[in-house]
Design goal:
The chain is 50% helix and 16% strand. It has 17 helices and twelve strands.
């Protein structure tokens, strides 16, 4: 029997708000509710064709890497005018894939089928305690308010681990208010890259799992320290939903001043740490900080190689990694590359005598 790699995206979707596609408890109801979701927000979400945020330039010796900053979520009913990106990709020598990582377990087809039910079991608390017994009373009271608002009568979620319950709430909340976790950019970039007859330059970090069956068994039997993750996502939805809507609008309309000014909260970091810093991963030599460092190093190496080899290249990054003082783009600036923001030329023109 042929063996092939099974890429287990085990924990990206469960630990990262916005990393998974929207998966409502009742998809039809969530879709219908989205049409009226604006009543849950003060911010009016933009619709129709929008320009997006413009592109950053990272340059050296006359060569330019053009970068698109992505945010999630985005307004559900917007369309992105991607003509600038399509034109740049059409003349690019390389298109960098965004930084990412996966679990890579070398198992055969029948073993893969054997693992699937175990994957599904990971959602439930191994000690069979309801959610009310797994989180503190204050967080559970906040949970009930938000659950009623966004999940309605979903009772199944009460048996989930806190990290899964929070992810379910997040996904449904986003759908209800008229936001979407879909990437409006990825499909366009893939199509334009294919038209250019290029393959995206991989920047994927593969974490090899030699004992995937044992890991899943351990995970099913282990209580994660994920109550802080649960609390952070509740706060994120309770306090930051308007900010998410404002950021989504700013991305869609290309309002870079607003994107820079808005605070960026990231509960996914503590959620990732809750999973990867648990003993079942640490004893296998997998720690979140090491994975983050490897992902950054891999992407930066690909970016420098593209800039050196091609007059024009293209890539996309999370907007936070473009704007953060210690982000990926800041690292390129520290290495001697010139970074130019999309609004820099306009600012220079307006300030000229």
């Amino acid at each position: 029997m042929n063996r092939r790699p099974l890429k287990l995206l085990l924990l990206l979707w469960l630990a990262l708000p916005g990393a998974s596609s929207v998966s409502a408890a009742d998809p039809a109801a969530a879709e219908a509710a989205t049409d009226h979701g604006a009543t849950l927000l003060k911010t009016v979400l933009v619709t129709g064709t929008q320009p997006g945020p413009g592109l950053w330039q990272v340059s050296k010796d006359g060569h330019v890497l053009w970068l698109l900053g992505n945010v999630s979520p985005v307004p559900k009913k917007m369309q992105w005018n991607a003509s600038e990106v399509e034109q740049i990709i059409a003349r690019s020598g390389a298109v960098l894939a965004p930084p990412a990582f996966v679990f890579d377990a070398d198992v055969g087809f029948f073993k893969m089928l054997f693992l699937l039910p175990k994957l599904l079991k990971t959602r439930k608390n191994p000690e069979h305690l309801p959610l009310a017994k797994r989180v503190n009373a204050g967080d559970y009271a906040r949970w009930l308010v938000l659950k009623q608002r966004y999940l309605g009568k979903n009772t199944k979620v009460e048996s989930y681990r806190p990290i899964f319950a929070a992810q379910t709430l997040y996904d449904d909340a986003i759908a209800r208010v008229g936001l979407s976790n879909r990437s409006v950019a990825n499909k366009v970039i893939r199509k334009a890259t294919s038209k250019r007859q290029l393959k995206a330059t991989p920047t994927l970090v593969k974490i090899k799992i030699e004992d995937s069956k044992a890991l899943l068994k351990d995970f099913n039997a282990t209580t994660l320290n994920d109550t802080e993750c649960f609390s952070k996502i509740l706060t994120h939805l309770d306090a930051d939903l308007e900010t998410m809507a404002d950021r989504a609008n700013a991305w869609a309309t290309g309002d870079l001043e607003m994107l820079r000014a808005l605070p960026y909260t990231d509960p996914s970091r503590v959620c990732m740490d809750a999973v990867f810093n648990d003993g079942i991963f640490m004893k296998r030599g997998i720690g979140m900080e090491a994975v983050r460092a490897q992902a950054k190093a891999t992407w930066l190496a690909a970016a420098e190689a593209a800039i050196k080899q091609y007059p024009t290249s293209f890539g996309s990054l999370p907007m936070a990694q473009i704007l953060k003082a210690d982000g990926y783009v800041a690292a390129l600036r520290d290495r001697g590359y010139t970074v130019t923001a999309p609004d820099a030329e306009a600012a220079a023109t307006s300030s000229a005598p």
